[in-house]
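User: Fold this; tokens only.

Assistant: Input:
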Amino acid sequence: MGAGPAGLSAGYYAKRNGMPFTVYEATDRIGGNCVTFEHDGFLFDSGAHRLHDKDAEVTKELKNLLGDDLRLVDVPSQIYWNGTFVYFPLLPIDLMKRLGACLFLKAVADVLCSRFRNKNTCASFADFALRCYGKTIAER
């Protein structure tokens, strides 16, 4: 396993349960795609490495493991698309401004259709994106 969040988590729980494991990392640092780098005194996050504390037990475990290295950051996530920043999670009013009224209405219709049509579990990330966002948004 690699030294990204998933590999480190698997190794942690393997060790906790007495199972042998080895972490192999291809780069010279841990974290996988989750990295914060500095450029001209500014910090930039790359990769999806926000922790959403929806599970109290997991959050407590992370706080115990990371201690002072775990920081609360309260800034909006944004996606750079088509020369502008779009808020994520997606906000309808922001999407309407970015897409325009006609494309926004098509996107709303796509979402409604996909949610009624696709009630099965998703077999891939593409299926998940189509079901959650509809074709118009998912393809963008």
